[in-house]
Amino acid sequence: MKLLEGKNCIITGGGGSIGRATARLFLEHGANVVLVDIAAPAGFEKERDRVVTVEADVSKAADAERYVAAAVTRFGAIDVLFCNAGNFGTVAPIEAYPEEVFDAVQAVHVKGTFLAAKHAVPHIRNGGSIVITSSVAGTRGDPGVYGYITAKHAQIGIMRCLAKELAPRGIRVNSIHPGPIDNSFQKSVEDDLGRIIGRDGTQFFDEIIPLGRHGTAEEVAMSVLYLASDMSSFTTGTMLMVDGGMSV
């Protein structure tokens, strides 16, 4: 059974592991996909009749307007918006945390999500779905992670506002909260952390995840598919944890 047959989907952060895994899964389930990233994602040439790639800075209003227009022009009304673009920033004590890094992280996660919704919502079909990638970091606080954790909490606020505003149109809005994922993004986080705590950052995370391991991009994608499809038809305003129990 194809859960997204004929659905038109936008994925920001389409060049990262979660974005690419989700795109592959959406395509398997019959969707048309617009992949948005700071550098146009490659590797989807065989599906070019159902894939559009767009280079865009999600924190820029003109770019958000442009990638939404590209989606609508190519495929028509939008059914799924997956706000997945992200950057980490750094880990540092508050007095040393760079202001420009803090601003850059908010711009991608918070403003990027706001702009995606602002420009896409008028084109989303009634009964559609918006999924926002937050993080287990959106449920906790940790020393030094000021940019990322602040941004991930803020995305939950956007999600909840949208969920109430769009409910009369039957548009569901939810956030997904991955824990540590086995990818290059997480590796850079763990390298930073390891330098601060003086031990292997990957091992540190594995020890505090109840399931005892990192997740995979494909596991996150399956959860995104649930929220994007009619399987979650009575689910909105929800934080879906995909973190191996780390938030428990």
- Percentage of residues in strands: 15-25%
Order of helices and strands: EHEEHEHEHEHHHE
Oligomeric state, counting identical vs distinct chains: single chain
Q: What is the helix fraction of residues, given as a range?
A: 40-55%
How would you briefly describe this protein structure?
With 248 residues, the protein is of the alpha/beta class.
Notes on the protein architecture:
- This protein has a 7-stranded parallel sheet, with helices on both faces.
- Helix 3 (99-120) links the parallel strand 4 and strand 5 (124-133).
- It is 42% helix and 17% strand.
- With 248 residues, the chain is an alpha/beta fold.
- It contains 7 helices and 7 strands; from the N terminus they run E-H-E-E-H-E-H-E-H-E-H-H-H-E.
- It is globular.
- It has 2 domains: 8-179 and 217-241, Rossmann fold, CATH 3.40.50.720; 183-214, no CATH class.
